[in-house]
Specification:
By secondary structure, the chain is an alpha/beta fold. It contains 3 helices and 7 strands. InterPro entries: ExbD.
């Protein structure tokens, strides 16, 4: 009996990568969906310090008031009169969240009061003002 060996009939072992890629994509989607995103107001402010500053867990809507009186909502500069419409829009997206005002230490109190008034007219009763702890 004669055996015939040919190079055409040899099968090479190949690893199928499709199931591994499926698992990687599923894990990627899982991590993207479960990640909590931090919302910023749009500018860095020099917050005043306070002895009674507390951490608020549910501060989803951030409003920043700069030293020169400029107002930022959702990383966009807005006029004081447009704060109400922006808060109403953001409140529709996350109705559970509170509003946190990040007012600069040098900001005029009149601008901060006008911003607070606009937020109250948007139907938000839970407003916090950001401060750093004096400790």
């Amino acid at each position: 009996m004669k055996r015939r060996y040919s190079s055409e009939s040899s099968d090479e072992a190949a690893i199928d990568m499709t199931p591994m890629l499926d698992i990687v994509f599923i894990m990627l989607i899982f991590f993207i969906v479960t990640t909590s995103f931090v919302k910023e107001a749009g500018i860095d402010v020099n917050r005043p310090s306070a002895n009674t500053a507390q951490t608020v867990k549910k501060g989803n809507i951030m409003v920043a008031v700069g030293a020169s009186g400029d107002v930022w909502v959702d990383k966009r500069r807005v006029e004081v009169d447009a704060v109400r419409a922006n808060i109403e829009r953001l409140r529709a997206e996350s109705p559970d969240g509170a509003v946190v005002i990040q007012a600069d230490e040098e900001a005029k109190s009149g601008v901060v009061v006008k911003v607070m008034d606009q937020i109250r007219m948007a139907g938000v009763q839970s407003i916090s003002i950001a401060a750093t702890n004096k400790d």
